[in-house]
Write a structure and sequence with these properties.
Elements (H helix, E strand, L loop, with lengths): L1 H13 L25 E7 L2 H10 L11 E6 L4 E7 L8 H12 L8
Parallel strand pairs: 1-3
Antiparallel strand pairs: 2-3
This protein binds zinc ion.
The site of zinc ion has 6 residues, from helix 3.
Length: 114
């Protein structure tokens, strides 16, 4: 059930591509850094931008993305991906859960940041 849900999120995230290959999140898929189809997901929600940014600065990860909206921290050794998001009651940004799951599955799939 969890895998089906995650697959649905990933598909939703990338189904809104334009002719330029840029999706609704403003990014395009460039290449996969890795492929990981099975992993543990932890979701952390924050009440404000300030809290999200502070959390991003504390997380020791190989790389962080999208600190101002959401970010994923990937722990490959423990096969765990943590997705950090603003609470939807604070700011509704539905494209970011799918985008960050994409980082869990494919790593840094947009190295040029677009
Ligand atoms: Zn990204």
């Amino acid at each position: 059930m969890k895998k089906l849900f995650l697959s649905a999120i990933a598909l939703m995230s990338f189904s809104g591509c334009t002719s330029m290959g840029v999706a609704s999140d403003g990014y395009r898929f460039q290449n996969r850094q890795w492929t990981n189809h099975e992993f543990r997901v932890i979701v952390k929600e924050y009440d404000s931008q300030k809290e999200l940014t502070a959390a991003a600065l504390k997380v020791d990860v190989a790389w962080r993305t999208h600190i101002t909206r959401a970010f994923a921290s990937v722990d490959r050794a423990n096969n765990t991906c943590t997705i950090h998001l603003l609470k939807p009651e604070f700011k509704w940004l539905p494209q970011w859960p799918g985008h960050e799951i994409g980082h869990c599955i494919w790593g840094n799939f947009h190295p040029s940041r677009r």
